[in-house]
């Protein structure tokens, strides 16, 4: 019986040793996999950092472009304001040159009498027959303009 106990004990010891070897091999494999995971994590982190840096660069470039566009827009707004002021000044109050005109002739008066009838300069320029008569008669309140 002592021999059987030794054999059984030797078989159990061998089995334990085999299990230890398997566990050590699995531990080594786990360690290698952990190293691979760390390397891949580092590679992913670097790739993400590169992408973030690239996007930050693009954002900075777009902000600079936007600032340039804002400056251009401000200049254009200023030009529009100046032109609007000039337009208002140009519209201003009527001058002596604001009298109605017809085919190179301008009235010097707002209203006049011709052949006993009263007319306004505005109505006269709308009446081609009357204008022809005035031009043919060399009407004194009508001057030729360039």
List the helices and strands and how they pair.
Elements: H1 2-91, E1 101-102, E2 105-107, E3 111-114, E4 117-120, H2 121-125, H3 128-136, E5 142-144
Antiparallel strand pairs: 1-2, 2-5, 3-4
Describe the structure.
The protein has 2 domains: 1-92; 96-144, no CATH class. The chain contains 3 helices and 5 strands. It has helices spanning 2-91, 121-125, 128-136, and strands spanning 101-102, 105-107, 111-114, 117-120, 142-144. The protein has a 3-stranded antiparallel sheet, with helices on one face. Strands 3-4 form a two-stranded antiparallel sheet. The longest helix has 90 residues, at 2-91. The N and C termini lie far apart (143 Å). The mean pLDDT is 84.
Q: How do you describe this structure in short?
A:
With about 150 residues, the chain is mainly alpha-helical. It has three helices and five strands. The protein has two domains: about 1-90; about 95-145, no CATH class.
Q: Mean pLDDT, as a whole number?
A: 84
Write down the secondary-structure element order.
HEEEEHHE
- Spatial separation of the terminal alpha carbons: 143 Å
> Residue share in helices?
over 70%
What profile does the largest beta sheet have? 3 strands, antiparallel
Number of strands: 5
General shape: rod-shaped
Query: Ranges with pLDDT <50 over ≥5 residues?
Result: none
By DSSP (H or I, 4+ residues per run), the number of helices equals 3
Which strands sit side by side, in order, in the main sheet? 1-2-5
Q: Helix- and strand-based class?
A: mainly alpha
Count of domain modules: 2
Our estimate of the beta-strand percent is: 5-15%
Rg, Å, rounded: 52 Å
């Amino acid at each position: 019986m002592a021999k059987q106990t030794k054999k059984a004990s030797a078989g159990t010891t061998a089995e334990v040793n085999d299990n230890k070897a398997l566990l050590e091999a699995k531990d080594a494999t786990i360690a290698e996999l952990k190293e691979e995971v760390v390397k891949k994590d580092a590679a992913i982190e670097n790739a993400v950092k590169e992408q973030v840096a690239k996007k930050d660069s693009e954002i900075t470039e777009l902000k600079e472009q936007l600032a340039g566009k804002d400056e251009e827009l401000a200049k254009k707004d200023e030009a529009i304001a100046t032109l609007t002021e000039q337009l208002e000044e140009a519209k201003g109050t009527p001058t002596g040159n604001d009298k109605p005109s017809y085919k190179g002739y301008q009235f010097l008066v707002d209203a006049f009498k011709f052949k006993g009838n009263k007319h306004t300069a505005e109505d006269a320029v709308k009446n081609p027959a009357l204008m022809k008569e005035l031009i043919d008669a060399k009407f004194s309140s009508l001057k030729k303009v360039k």
